[in-house]
Fold Aminoglycoside phosphotransferase domain-containing protein.
Amino acid sequence: MPNDDCPTAPAEYKIGWVNIHLPLIFDDGVKWIVRIPRRHNGDAPPNLHNLVASSEAATLRVLHQNGAKVPNAWMPVEGNPDEAANGRYFFEEFVEGVPYIDGDYMNTLHPDRDRFTASLLEFAQHYIAVADIKLEVKGIGSLYPSDNSCGYTLGPITSMGTFMRPEPPYFLGPFKTLRDRYIAHIEQVLFHIRNLSFLMIAPIRTYVWLMELQDIIKECEVLGREEDDFYIRHADDWFRQTMRDSEGHLTGCLDWEWAYTTTKSEAFSSPLHLHIAHPWTEGDNALSPDELLMIDCFIKLGRPDLGDCIRQGRLYLRLEEALRIDWELFYMNRRGNFNGVLAAFRDQGQQVPGPFESDEELKVWLESLEKKRQENGELDEVRATWRAYSAVWKEAERRDEETWEDVVAEQYKKLGLEEVDSAEK
């Protein structure tokens, strides 16, 4: 795009948390947007952005061609010398409307249960369109463009945070079963903890908890089941990712950059994250009133099977939450999170600890895990690494304190306060 044609006024483009969107209007009135990942200090290399962008574009094309409420998408022409940033962006259709969460709309919609139910019915129709897609790939991974007959292929899961490597190949997968996927994720998180990839409040305790969770997953029959059919899951499915018109009708579901294929049970376990409510954070896996409404919508539309995915999906939601270890501050201090994930396994017929009735009871259990793993020698490497880090950190703090004292003393001397202090003595 020539520099003279680049929009400069804020009204001409939109900047989100992760992407920048530029409008592209053709002479015939057709509107597209250019979706560009934002650049940050320490940003990922271009080839990684290319993987994410191409996967999102391929996913959008499959969804759009099969009637889901999403825009169509296109990657730039490969090899075009004018495309200096090839792979750093892609094109998608412009979706009319405003975000569902704009203004006070949700605050007025949610209490009006009739209006809210009508909105959920439209979302249910969208999910049914997604569920009706017969993918020509098998496995748990992300879709990527291909020259084959269906136009896409299955590759590693595009992700961020702990579920990726720091070096190529960045992403993991595809996987045959959910058990394989979760075990690989935990192995990668353990790697990050051993290598000080991010700051943690309780690294050793987190480490032993993940090792215990990994052992529980290995024994889970449901997660080890090999499926024949796989479905597309929006990995960041909230109201904030959806658009509505002036009358409140759904016009599009956006932001599919972390989407992946998975089992039916997981793919439709948490529409719009309707499970998030106060009882959930306390470890209560009961269905929320909003989830019950969505289940009724699926039943009305002749798809009770998708409602069953919500009823039986607690395990996937709790595991997704349990592996957000880079959000440890919001995780390790909540007894409800531990009780919730363990209860989900207990509902599958597994013998697991808990529920913990007090924070002290949970603390004692975690300490017992640490003692067991320590005696087995499984914590030697990670403990040595974090001890060395702690020593370096304390030395840096000591030097900073000494430097600061020298700076203060120098300033006092310049101000002549040193003599005053001496006279007072």
